Amino acid sequence: MKTVQPRASHEQGIALLGVIILALVLALVGAALLDLAGQEASSVSGATDVAVAQAVADAAQDLVIAWFHSPHTSPSALAALLTKRQSSSDGSPSFFDQAGRSQFMGTIDRPDVLLDASRTADQHLLNDAGTGMFRFLEDLGSVQELKVYAPGAPGLLCTVDATVTTANSSARHAVSIQLSALEIPALRAAIQVGGNLGFPQVAPESGALVHWGDLTIGGDLTVQRAEDLPSQSDSAPVTSVSYRDMSHREDRWLSMWIGGPVHLMQLSPGQSSNVAFPFNVHANRHPTPGVRRDRWGYEQLKQLAKQHGTYLAIDRDGLLYPSGSVEPGHGVTPDDYLRSRSVGDTRGLIFVDTLDQKAPRADNLGVVRLSGAYLEAVLVVQGHVMAGPAGSGQFLSVLSPPAGGSGAAGSRTSVQLSDIHLNGALYAVGNITLDRSMRVFGAVAAEGTITTTHPGATMELWYDHEMGRGLFRGIPVVIRAPGTWMVRYE
Prior knowledge:
It contains five helices and 30 strands. It is α/β, with parallel strands linked by helices and about 500 residues long. The protein has two domains: about 45-180 and about 475-490, no CATH class; about 190-470, no CATH class. The strands form seven sheets. Strands 7, 8, 9, 13, 15, 16, 17, 18, 20, 24, 26 and 28 form a twelve-stranded mixed beta sheet that branches. Strands 3, 4, 5, 6, 29 and 30 form a six-stranded antiparallel beta sheet that branches. A four-stranded parallel beta sheet has the order 19-21-25-27, with no helix packed on it. Strand 1 (about 85) and strand 2 form a beta hairpin. The longest helix is centred in the first third of the chain and has 65 residues, at about 5-70. It is elongated.
């Protein structure tokens, strides 16, 4: 009788060996998976740490960008370094000299601006839990260094380096960006006109009343009486009171620069034709030494609006086309498009082109009709403007220019202005015609003139001092230059 026991034992041994091999393979796979999971967890943790570091660094760089827009909010020692310290060819404040070189000339080792947390004062300024600029980021990390120095490419403004650590790591992360500047020429006078201002009519004003800044006129000035010309006095009250409500018209900052003579429509009792004007009235300046006026170039503003603002085409009926080309049936009225709902609804830079979208000439100027109650914008019109605001405007809290002859140097007074229709700037290549009175906080320039459709309509303006430094609300001063973001590890 034959037995099968040896064969069965042999098969059982092979099966056991297979189980052992399978267990070994599974153990190796498990170990590999555990190691991979550990690596993945470490990778995720590292990626999270990098993301947090970059967010903290971006916040630091955003703060530097904000300082350029409002230098008075930066540390006092840095404010002067972040303002425009050069002059363009026309004398306007600029970040660049006339050769196009940035005012920032430092290097990464010797930067123009440096805040270093290894210095006690800077650590307190940057990261103090109570007052530090980045105290709200303390759960994420801290800023170790902030540097501003020369740009890496011609035409750019500067490089901004932020070195940070995160709350979960002592590793230092450095993020670098470069900034470019959007420079609009300053408006260094409150109201500027290229032609004559004021025409013979029975009216108490010439049509333009200026507070807190200069009035520049390329031609002649016509006013009703000599008393209508405000005098300049360091003791004049800084208020929102209209000239119409003053028994004696005066202002701290007003000077009038007039190319031709001043014409009086009426002499007061006892006055002669050789009446003496206030010392702040500078007449007969044409042709020498002339009257300085700020001019905004057509192509420069057009391209700037296309990239960083609003570009509008216009037709002969005064309809606007946000698409940038005249398309019948798609035009909108200026009343619908050019208005702000409330204070703070800033429309930024708005550029209205000529009828044929070519450089302005006498035969291609359109007419923009402004009838909204309130507009907060920098409006550039390559044509004429008809202004007749319907409504009472808005209430604004603003700052006067820095004090001059009296008070602390550089101090500014808070003033409440009412019934403001335009909060910003208006630049017209043609004429500005007033169909109703309007009140402005900002600056106005017309290469033609400012006139009225009927006696008594006036433009009364309080000058925004910031526009004399090339700072315009709603328009970036600096932006991140595309393609310049870079991170490195220390």
